[in-house]
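Thread: Newbie trying to understand structure tokens

Hi all, I'm a second-year student working on a class project, and my supervisor (Dr. K.) asked me to get a predicted structure for one chain before our next meeting. I've only ever worked with sequences, so writing a 3D structure as a token string is new to me. If someone could post the tokens and maybe explain what I'm looking at, I'd be very grateful. Here's the chain:
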Amino acid sequence: MRKTLLFLIFSFLSWCSLAQQRTVHGKVTSADDGTGQPGVNVVVKGTPRGTVTDSDGQYTIAADPNDILVFTFIGMLPQETTVGSREVIDVAMQSDIRQLSEVVVVGYGTEQKRLMTEAVGVVKSDAIKDLPVPTVDGVLQGQTTGVQVSQNSGTPGGAMSVRIRGNTSLSGSGQPLYVIDGIPIITGDYAQIGYEGQGINALSDLNPNDIESLSVLKDAAASAVYGARASNGVVLITTKRGKTGKSTVNFNMYKGFQQVWNRLDMLNAAQWRDYRKDLTGVELPDTGVDVDWQKEIFRTAPMSNYELSTTGGNDRTKFFISGNYFDQDGILIGTAFKRVNARINVDHKVTDRLNVGTSIGLTYSKSNRVEGDASLHGPLPNGISTPAVISVYNADGTYNQSGPYSNAVSIANEATNENFTYRTLGNVFADYRILPGLTVSSKWGVDFYNLREHAFEFNTVQGQKYNGLGFETYTNVLNIVSNNMLRYETSFGQHNLDAVVGYSFEKRETRNSYMRGQDYADENLQYINSAATKVDVTASALDHGLRSYFSRINYNYNGRYMVSLSGRIDGSSNFGPNHKNGFFPAASVAWRMAEEDFIKDNLSVVSELKLRASYGLLGNEDLTPFSYQAMYGTASYHGAPAIYPNQIPNPDLKWESTAQFDVGVDAGLFEDRVTLSFDYYNKQTKDLLQSRPVPPTSGFPGAYQNVGALENKGIEISLGYNNRFGDLQWTSRLNVSANRNKVTKLYGGQPLDDAGRGGNRIMEGQPIGVFYDLKSLGVDPSTGDIVFADTNHDGEITTDDRTVVGNPNPKFIGGFTNTFNYKNFDLSIFLQWSYGNDVFNGSRLYLESLQRGDNQTTAVLRRWKKPGDITDIPRATSDPVAAANNVRVSSRFIEDGSYLRVKNVTIGYTLRSKFSDKVMLSSLRIYASAQNLFTFTKYNGLDPEVNYSGNDITVVGTDFFTFPQARAITFGLNLKF
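---
Reply by user tm_fold:
Sure, no problem. This is what the structure looks like when written as tokens:
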């Protein structure tokens, strides 16, 4: 009886307790902007009962009236509230200045910066808003550590070389993977008409003004979720999206002009005649002609940019819409670039569980290019090389073609080289919350790139040679991507977990057609159907596929100890059948020492101190397509069509793999007014793809095999300072990077020799692309001829005497930005530099040859003339043996390519709000900006930041009449309604 009574009493008390407990729900928002705050821990104080808010900030929890709910989130002040009789409890959380951490976009998600275990460089839109840079890759230059961005030439809209922590391939691409709003995009140069280093950059179709942020994934832990394409690094680009609140309209524009910042000192007419007399013994008459050909080919070129955008939204729908028009004439006559962009980004909340959205970008662009760099049929090489005694026009107004090369002005004015691109880049996505903390999402994207090239010459020397010469090419590239993910986020006590698993696939289709014709009846009939002779008509197709499974798990305890594990399995059509799939894992850890009591209690000035380390494996599947297969070519055999084998199969061919170790420290002092970040990395790449030699009797030129290895080691240092002195706000950012590259293994130890005009070489024990040439000992005072080092001591100067005489890879790169805000004024100064790299000045092979019909630089005025002269310039001689010897490729033409560039200076003024209100403006800003204002360098060419071979990995650091960058002065206006 007693047991029965006790049972009834306890049952009654439990029933009473349950009767008091109720379901409480609500929404947690940010007090700053009112948006829902996902991932907030909601715990009943003193109990293990808890939950976490979903992607919209909603939560549900069981609680008693006397219970106290505790709301906590990294970067927010904790908040407590008693339940009482309420069933709906909404909370607005305030930012914790000490703990606040920006959200950084990473692979397939976002992370709080303070909780990150990986090495990720971040560039925000405010850092690039005033830079008149037309391309996405250009805005990265000097902005973050570990990223070397080189503008190969000044061609408007032209390609750039981007290297993240050095080169990790010899035959594949050295460029990083670019991902826009979660979708990998088409990059590279798809032009079929060659203009040497002045390639067409697929990235130039994208509008930098649409960028909200760029995240550069540098180490293996950050990049491994992109697997077989991540060894060159990954650049994640996030475009602007709508925000809750009043709709706003923004109008931004700038106009300005560009000029060449440097010119070569060339001989005038009198100096030219004196030089030719010294060379030939013949005195030329003074015809009164003295042309500065650089003035004829360079010009002051206008540039302008107009952008209109609107953004806004409510709790259910947010939008961002923009339109942009960019127009740039090149400083070299005959060059130009125009682009029209449109973008719409929409996010819609269908239900409390389902969100959908889309991002659509449309582009049309037109570029005008001219031949140059390695060509001797371009305005720049021909103009510089034409002597001042040659006039531009004849007396009858026709072009004077009596110079050593085609008239440079005639080429620019009469040759047609037009390139048109049409591009659609878009995606649609849906996120569905299955359970609190558990979300499934799917995103489908498409990138369609269409390039049409039209070239025609009729009245030029080359056009007359072929009685009219025309080209027409079409390139269509379609890339379809699907990303599908399941994400789980939860917290229990001080433990926080974020896990993602996913599946993705890509299919890329490339279609090309090429047509060349000659023998045209009239200069107005430019297309191939008007050509009497169709010289070449070809078409090709190529498909590529990638299937992937990936996962990432992030765990942290109390925001203090962090662990991250990630991995990806990639199956690529570029791999051989025996290695179709590759696995790329990575792990990273971090410890926020600043959260420990021994730091808080004894070092109050330390606001952040985090140690991190990572290790992982990355891949590069950007190989020559179907290198593993037996390939066949087509030909004509006795008038009948035939095929023949032209490639040896290798079923074991696989991806190039890079193992990377990284250790770093992030520190903040005085509430993060001073910040420091340091990284050391070691990248070991193996299985490099090489075409190894085979016996000539096989009939094949070589066979592809994974045989090479190289390494990259480096350090990265970033310093930041942010402080206010009354009305003056000063923000400073300094970054310095050093990378050391070395080839550690080649097939049979055999070097890849004599690449490019500067003799670039790939050899074991040396960095990629070292200059391997004869070593010049200067001019012999007794003979006036160049003397070379006999390095093998055999008494003769031959190719066997070549040695390493230069390194095109810089020892240090960096950037330094200072921004000052004083009341309504703002000033920004951005410096960018490269130190310790050599440049082979191939232009001097002609411009200091002292033997041909080319014009010469004024350096030849100090040429050797008589025995006993001490100089660095040899004699002018018609002796063919001596003349050929004096222009041999050697260290004579290698120069220090280091430079410090005042990349940008901007000064602006924002009108006071009272005036703005009167004209219905929320803000109005005017500014002036100077790009490439000053360049400090010892280099004697037009520009030290050059490479005539464009994005080539092997041929680097060579200048051969390369189109220089421009100095640009612009004036801008920002209006916000």
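A couple of things are worth pointing out once you decode it. The CA atoms of residues 560 and 596 lie 8 Å apart. Confidence is low (pLDDT under 50) at residues 1-19. Feel free to ask follow-ups in this thread.
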